[in-house]
Write a structure and sequence with these properties.
With 75 residues, the protein is mainly alpha-helical. It has one domain (3-74). The chain is 76% helix and 0% strand.
């Protein structure tokens, strides 16, 4: 899948969880990371983590970025 599509999808998930988090965003980040672990194919997760590490994911919102960094740290 294209990195742009993965970024778009991650940002959409981020918007959903951000609307439910009224504090510092940590609950939203955890919700996003959990969603990505449960519902994204492992290849999708690996691709977005690799692209982020390479600096190739422009347009990624802050909360999804934090969630993907959390996923990257756990791999």
């Amino acid at each position: 899948m294209s990195p742009d599509k993965l970024v778009y999808m991650a940002n959409q998930i981020g918007k959903f969880f951000a609307a439910q988090d009224h504090a510092d965003g940590s609950a939203a980040v955890e919700g996003i990371a959990t969603h990505l672990r449960k519902f994204w194919d492992p290849r999708m997760r690996q691709e977005i983590v690799a692209k982020m590490r390479a600096g190739e994911v422009g347009g990624l919102d802050p909360l999804p970025r934090r969630a993907i960094e959390q996923l990257a740290a756990g791999e």
